[in-house]
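Reopening this one. Same input as before:
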Amino acid sequence: MERRPFLVLLTTALAGCGATNQSTPEPTAPPTDTPTESPPTATEPTETATDTPTESPTDTPSPEVREAQQRLSAVTSTLDAAVEQYVGDAGETILAADASYLEFDGDEVVAAVEEAERELERAREAVVTEEQEETLASLEEMTRFLRLATETQTSLVDAYYHLTETREALASADDGAAEDAMSEMDAASRIASSPYQTLVEETAVSATSVLSELDTERYRRKLTQFEAEIRAFGDLRAPLDTFATAVGRLGTARALELNGSTDQARQIARDAARELDEVAAAFATFTTDLEEPADSLAEMGESLEGLATEMATETREQFGIDDEETTTATTTTAA
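Same output, byte for byte:
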């Protein structure tokens, strides 16, 4: 047996065993990036559920409160009815009942106001709450307003009635009756001034809130109407006096003419015609300058102007006076 092949085989075997005993290195894991932490997410605050408050039931008014309210309502109804009676057939509001409304029935209104005053006494005994006391005070003011307004209105209607009498007397050439009627007109107008002043001083516009038939605007405008009409009657007195004087002159001129004193009669008639011209111009100015709240007197102003113009024309025709003579006389008088 040959030894060389055997040694080769042995050497090869030993080499293989040495390789097997060496440790095999473990593979290194690839490096990984360190994760970055995300910022904490803000969480929405959770609303705490709250209970919805329940409304407490309204307190039921006591029998005493209800009784007082009923009595106050009775006063309100009576006063609203009084305003309707005040207006009557004149129109829709209290402003329609002006000085020229000769059908105004103050007695009916006063009767309603007196009923309201009796109801106020009963309500005064029953009021309980502060609100009811305030309502009572407003109703008292409106009751006072209607009483004073009725007194003022009655006197102004009387003044207008006597103004119509004055016109009729002037148209009939009765200067004496005209002067009497004018005096009555003046007296009635002065009487109206007294309750009107009290009305302004002792009532307040805020109290109208308790009535449905009267509001703040109508209240204010009614007071303005009263004031304007009282002033207008005063403005009429001067031209009416001149008118009556002219009518008296005409009566004298006619009497002289009947007695044969023609020249003297003509002279007096000429003066009367001149005065009538002045009166007509004065009434024209009165009507033009008349305040809107007193327009109830506008028609009468126009009527008096027309009457004066007509009488002046008739006087010139009757006594043969031309316009130039009248103008000359007017210029001479002014000088």
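So the earlier flakiness isn't reproducible anymore. For the record, Residues 63-319 form one domain.
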